[in-house]
Amino acid sequence: MAHHNEVNHSKINSLTWTNYLNVVLLLTFRLPFAILQTVFSPFIHTANGYNDKPLKRRIGDALMRTASIYLPTPIMQHIVGSGLDQYRRWAAKYQPELGTTVEELPMDFDGGRGEQAHLFWIGPKRTEKVILYFPGGIYMFPVTEMMLKFWRYAQSEWSRQGLEVSIVVLSYSVGSDPDAAFPIQLFQATQALKHLFSIGCKPSDIQIVGDSAGGNLVTQLLSHMVHPCPLPSFVPPLHLPPGIRLRGACMISPWVGLSDPDQWGSTLRTKDYDVTVHQNLREAGEHYINAISNINIPHELSQLIPYAEPVLAPDYWYLDLQNSVVDRVLVTAGKEERLFDQIEVFFRCKIKPYHLDAILLVQGGGIHDDIIMDFEISETPLRNELTPVVLEWMAQGFRM
Question: Do the record's keywords include Membrane (predicted)?
Answer without folding.
Answer: yes
